[in-house]
Amino acid sequence: MAFLGSIGFDFTEQMKASRQHTAITWLGLLLGLVILLGLGQLIRFRIDLTEDQRYSLHEATEAVLDSLREDIHVEILLSGEDLPAGMRRLQRSIEEQVRTFDAYSDRKISFSYFDPLSLAEEEQEEFILQLADYGINPTTLFVNQAAGQQTKLIFPGILIYSEEFETGALVLKGEKGMGEEQILNQSIENLEFELSNAIRKLTRSDMGALAMIIGHEEMKEDDGYGLVEALDGDFEIFKVPLEQARTVQDLVNFKIIFIQGPQQAYSEREIYLLDQYVMQGGNLVILSDGVQVDVREAGGEGTLAMPYENGLENLLFKYGVRINKDLIQDLNFGYFPVMGGNFGDQEQLVPLPWPFYIQSTRMYPHPITKGLDLIYLRFASSLDTVLAPGVKKTPLFFTSDLSRILTAPVRVAFSDMQREPDIAQFPMQNLPLAYLLEGEFTSLYKNRFLPEGFEQSEFKESGKGKVVVIGDGELFQSQSDFQSGRPLNLGEDPFNQNIYANRLLLRNLAQYLDNPEGIIASRTRSFQIRPLNRVKISQERTKWQLINVGLPVVFLLLFGGAVAAIRRKKYSR
Q1: Chain-centroid distance, C-alpha 198
Q2: DSSP state of 58
Q3: What is the mean pLDDT of residues 205-209?
Q4: What angle do CA 220, 221, 223 make, to 5 degrees?
Q5: What is the pLDDT of residues 249-295, one digit of tens each?
Q6: Which of 222, 267, 275, 279 is nearest to 241 (CA)?
Q7: DSSP 547
Q8: Has this prediction a pTM greater than 0.85?
Q9: Cα–Cα distance, 414 to 432 (Å, whole number)
């Protein structure tokens, strides 16, 4: 009996020790969890294990978030429960991007959803006009419902608020000709840029200076309105008469210098100042026509577009690009309004195809042009590259597969619109319409006499700058409303109500030239599209349903049975 009592005592002691050990284990786990939670509040970190780094941010974006001094709120306008699958994917991606920004920022970045169509009719109209100022225009979707296919109006954009200011951005963007999946994927790729750029505009206190050169009949069409309106809030813009600049030091404080469609020749002294501005690391944008066209004389027998010189030819040739004395025609054309007789007592405007007006849809995958829609050019000249050691030449956008070049003098007549174009006469394709030049430039005045009034000791024979050359002097000039005569926003067509991507092109270009390593660099991100094989899904639906639904249940039953067997074997002793 004493022996059995000692056995019972030993068993009781073992049970107590086992319980104590279990309690200590749970207490240790609980204490470790508390410590981890405490460290999580003190030390914030994220590990992105995705192949394409979807949840990581560009260092320039992180710098923007580090500069935040107050909480901000993001209002997602893409809302609704009955959105198609692609739009729900974009909706989730916007939310995920905002959460990622919040995780990286020391300030709170919150979000909510808002449907502009939920407002009363009067408020709704005013709100939609306000969204248009931010470039957020409604998009019509076709949604399959039980009652049949329905149309739905959505606003694929975001609004961002701080305590004092607000701004907005359109997030659904793609190139013409892309499929729906490609447009959605490209929009998701650009979410980081769109969101960080909007935050930067909301919080930016210092703005760089930008110069528009005047004095040679530049910007005759809109007097610079299109450029000023597009870059308002990003740069301080000044009109600078180049003839009044005494030294290159009068120009070096400008982040970018624009020359738009000069009609008169530049003097040797002015060309020297532009050259030395580039040698000092400046950013020069030249939009120049190879020929002069007066479209007002295109009626009747028409007019001739004649070549002319503006004095910039040798400078551009030295830098590696030549604007040719010709005009490009493209069968991916725009339309020109021509008087087509009267209807009652009213003159009627008739749109006729005009191959001199080019709708460019081919974009080079560069931060400036990636994802842009149609770019509209009027009377563009072709560009050729020439040898310029040390200079990298990047074409930015192109003509279509059906183009041709007409060497000056070129006949320009409205009567030519009445004839069907012969496709066989348009054998050229993908003609470059703009070049970005980067690298080590050599001065035009190396081994030459300097213009009078400049010292050799201040001369730089080479330097690292950036130059953009476009063979259309009107690309960044806005058109005017037919009825009121007021200038329209850059990219708006007064006749067919289209909105082209010229405004976005200008803004991307200015951001890249100002800081190529800044947030504009995030536009180079790319995510791999992994579409599902619909045929395979149809054939193997049952098999994968059993695997996805049945296999986890079987695994849990086996695991539970194994645990029960182990416990039974352990405690049955």
Answers
A1: 12
A2: -
A3: 78
A4: 65
A5: 999 999 999 999 999 999 999 999 999 999 999 999 999 999 999 88
A6: 267
A7: I
A8: no
A9: 26
